[in-house]
Amino acid sequence: MSRVELGFGRCVHCLRHSALITRDHVFPKSWYPSNARKDTWKWQIPACRRCNARYGKIEEEMLTKLGLCVDPTKPGLAELIERARRSIDPRAGKSERDASLRWARRQKLLQDMRWGRDVPNQGIYPGLGERWERPPEEQGAVLIPRAHFRRLSEKITRGIHYLVERHYIPPPFVIDQVAVDDSDASPIAELLQEYGQEFAHEPGITVRRAVTRDDSTSSALCIEIWETFKMYAFVTNRVPDGWTCFSFSPYTTEGFYNGRIPEKEFRSLVPSQLSRAHRLVNQLKAPQS
After folding, report:
1. SS3 state at 168
2. pTM to 2 decimal places
3. Which residue in 219, 84, 186, 98 sits closest to 144, CA to CA?
4. What is the C-alpha separation between 259 and 250, in angstroms, rounded?
5. What's the CA gap between 2 and 80, in Å, rounded?
6. How far apart are CA 64 and CA 45, in angstroms?
7. In this structure, what DSSP letter does residue 118 have?
8. What are phi and psi of 208, to 5 degrees?
9. Least enclosed by CB within 10 Å: which of 93, 178, 190, 243?
10. How far is 106 from 89, CA to CA, in rounded Å?
11. pLDDT tens-place string over residues 111-131
């Protein structure tokens, strides 16, 4: 894959400076049909070669696997499914080396597939479960590393933030990605609908993003892929060295206002993957001063 070299600069992903900065598409270009809107590809960000290549491999593997899990009757998805199939077909190789790579990709995919009673009944990503009402013995599934979803959502989050705010997401800000059913995410979805801005590049990816009034970095995003599944991402400020900083109510015990408690203790108080997301929700709901 050819990449446009920009020379010296800073990578949006790893935040390192490099003499070999390239252009990286915020939205994976291969995830769109050939008739996608032309302005989709204007969303490009500076990335070092290493990060560009790493995300490229993740997007390629996810396209191959997710292409087997989507509804072919949805607009534009039939072409993506065919693209996923060709990516594991050695006969479609343009050279002997290309054919070999497709064959290796096919073997890896077969290793990660499960059939019938071997399909796990837990850890199923919301929106990507059984949707065809097949009996258990006829069902199929494919294993996708959880980290791939996290890294993809982080890439899109950092990319949109850079393009909109014109700056990076530095420490102590962190990005959390969660996978929840629509029913559990309804409070956050409602707030994103009310306060968020939509970045739509259909039929591929639609993003709704809301930024808190406290700063220009803390934010919540809903990233919807092919109208099939969603990834929720949250950018929050976490103090380094394992400490989480947040404000207590002014009615709490004096001396603990604007206090800090260790991350471990905070997790025990609020044992939820969405704990920081809930604070973001409260910030979004706070009246504007």
Report:
1. coil
2. 0.81
3. 84
4. 11
5. 21
6. 24
7. G
8. -120, 130
9. 190
10. 7
11. 999 999 899 888 899 999 998
